[in-house]
Amino acid sequence: MPLTALPVVKPTQQKRSAETQRKILAVVERLIQKGQFDKVNVQEIARQAGCSIGAFYGRFSDKNAALFGFYDVRCEKLEQSAQDILTLDRPSKRALSDILDDFIESIVNLDTEHAHFLRASAVLSGSERAQPFLKRAQMMNANILNLLSLLLEKRGGEFEHPHPRVAAQFVLAIVGSLSREAVLVGEHLAQEQFDCQSFTDELKRAIYGYLGVKQNNALPK
Q1: Torsion of CA 113, 216, 80, 143, to 10 degrees
Q2: Residue 76: CB partners within 8 Å, gap ≥ 6?
Q3: Which distant-in-sequence residues (6+ apart) come within 8 Å of 68 by Cβ?
Q4: When comparing pLDDT for 181 and 173, which is higher?
Q5: What DSSP designation does 88 have?
Q6: Buried/exposed code over 18-36 (b: 16+ C-beta within 10 A; e: otherwise)
Q7: Dihedrals phi, psi of 60, to nearest 5 degrees
Q8: Which of 14, 90, 115, 214 has the highest CB neighbour number within 10 Å of its CB?
Q9: Quick count: other Cβ atoms within 10 Å of Cβ 43?
Q10: Is the residue at 221 inside a domain?
Q11: pLDDT tens digits for 139-169?
């Protein structure tokens, strides 16, 4: 049966079950950080998580499903962050530039936090194993795009681009792709150490210039 047809992450019904799943995902993250995920089997993951093999399979269909489970949590964090930053029903009357500041920073910060996973997942590209990850990424991007589009439609008077929906698609594509690229290879560019804050500031300038938004005075000149 193809991997994409499997219910790769099984829902947890009890607090104890959820805690076991959390421990397994913590082990997955640690193994990814050490570059050891592909070198261990399910038995070793279960041992490090302090659970039985049966408990592992009660939550994940296989090792790749556990990797997907970690990715799913990462996507949920991005979606929740975007919801908190971009939602229109908040009472705050913040400037569009301030909202975009927070949005761009949240994506770069989470990509930086999960740099090891991004490097590990890059090897999946083009394989059947990548399909669930790609589908989850598409769902996440669609959710965030909808939020960003609504924001730009609401704040059309604060930028010059004539088509908010098109602008939202481009902004999300640019921020997402450049952030991942910077995390993956940025530290090798010009043989200089990757400076997350400088990169984030330049990314803001690029987005503000594209949209025609006045740059936040907090950005260094």
Answers
A1: -110
A2: none
A3: 8, 9, 132, 133, 136
A4: 173
A5: T
A6: eebbebbbebbbebbeeee
A7: -135, 140
A8: 115
A9: 11
A10: no
A11: 999 999 999 999 999 999 999 999 999 999 9
Is 217 inside any structural domain?
Answer: no
CATH code: domain of residue 183: 1.10.357.10
Residue 133 forms part of a structural domain: yes
Query: Domain range holding 133?
Result: 3-211
Phi-psi group of 156: left, alpha or beta (phi > 0 → left; psi -120 to 50 → alpha; rest → beta): alpha
User: Which residue's entry shows tokens 């993956």?
Assistant: 184
φ/ψ bin of 172: left (φ > 0), alpha (ψ from -120 to 50), beta (otherwise):
alpha
DSSP per position, 114-182: THHHHHHHHTTTTSGGGHHHHHHHHHHHHHHHHHHHHHHHHTGGG---S-HHHHHHHHHHHHHHHHHHH
pLDDT of residue 187: 52
Q: What is the mean pLDDT of residues 4-32?
A: 74
Q: Which helix (H) or strand (E) segment is 187 a member of? A: none
- Rounded to 5 degrees, φ, ψ at 41 are -105, 180
Number of domains the chain contains: 1
| Percent of residues, the chain, with pLDDT higher than 90 | 50
Helix, strand, coil percent values for the chain (each to nearest 5)? 75, 0, 25
